[in-house]
Amino acid sequence: MQNDPRSIGVFDSGLGGLTVLSAIRRKFPNESLFYLGDTARLPYGTKSPETVLKYALACAKALMKQAELKLLVIACNTATAHAFSALQDELEIPVVGVIESGVSETLSHVHLDSIAILATAGTIRSKAYERELKKQNFEGRIYPLACPLFVSLAEEGLTEGPIAQAISKHYLRQLPYLPDAVILGCTHYPLLLPTLKASLPHKTIWIDSGHATAHHLKFSPCLHQRGEARYFVTDAPERFQKVASQFLGQSIPIPDLISVD
């Protein structure tokens, strides 16, 4: 097996991509990871496709200035929907998004007749999940549902309690039927999973697209070292450090503040 000590880059609009980073670290503990949260410009889900593409290209280039990368993970569904193809064309390293893996993981469960997609308004408007589901031959019912306030709840650390419960119920009661599976089509949303699960039947299958992406990654591994993670943000590093440490269950250093313009 070939040894490749280069790092893996991961970027998101903010904290949500930490769900992907955490899954990658568990599966590949020897890999060095560079994480960028574009906290100055979140949320991406309310932005135009052109703006998201511009931001994603800037984030990718900023990460590649920080380290020699062997792989870039777009840990943001909205950025995957609007910038995946462009980043593949622009960069000389492999680029992985979260949508294809999320759909593949969903369809690994047999006998699904209905799937709900919870995502940002931008991801829902792109219809990227519907296209990928049809590409992978799903013929059942699909119900996309924009849940924009979930990002704010996650970024503020309000993932449980009465506020999160009320907003969760507000969105999920809009589903016209009880789906067999729910795709969490934003990497922020798994942070609210305990609250979300309380609003639907226990038999509902929940798919974390970020976790699925980590599970499906393929690359030449680093064989001879214990991997470390470095963190970068575009605004409010102290706030990111506080909330990220709560989410990860361990203290992380205050991230480096960088510009991606």
How does the SSE layout of this entry go?
Elements: E1 7-12, H1 18-27, E2 33-37, H2 49-66, E3 69-74, H3 77-90, E4 95-96, H4 99-107, E5 114-119, H5 121-126, H6 128-135, E6 141-146, H7 149-155, H8 162-172, E7 181-184, H9 193-197, E8 205-208, H10 209-216, E9 229-233, H11 237-248, E10 256-257
Parallel strand pairs: 1-2, 1-3, 2-9, 3-4, 5-6, 5-7, 7-8, 9-10
Question: What does this entry look like structurally?
Answer:
The protein has helices spanning 18-27, 49-66, 77-90, 99-107, 121-126, 128-135, 149-155, 162-172, 193-197, 209-216, 237-248; strands at residues 7-12, 33-37, 69-74, 95-96, 114-119, 141-146, 181-184, 205-208, 229-233, 256-257. The model has no long low-confidence stretch (mean pLDDT 93). The strands form 2 sheets. A 6-stranded parallel β-sheet has the order 4-3-1-2-9-10, sandwiched between helices. It has a 4-stranded parallel β-sheet with strand order 6-5-7-8. With 261 residues, it is an alpha/beta fold. Helix 1 (18-27) runs parallel beside helix 10, helix 4 packs across helix 6 and helix 4 crosses helix 10. It folds into 2 domains: 7-97 and 213-257, Rossmann fold, CATH 3.40.50; 99-209, Rossmann fold. It is globular and about 50 Å long.
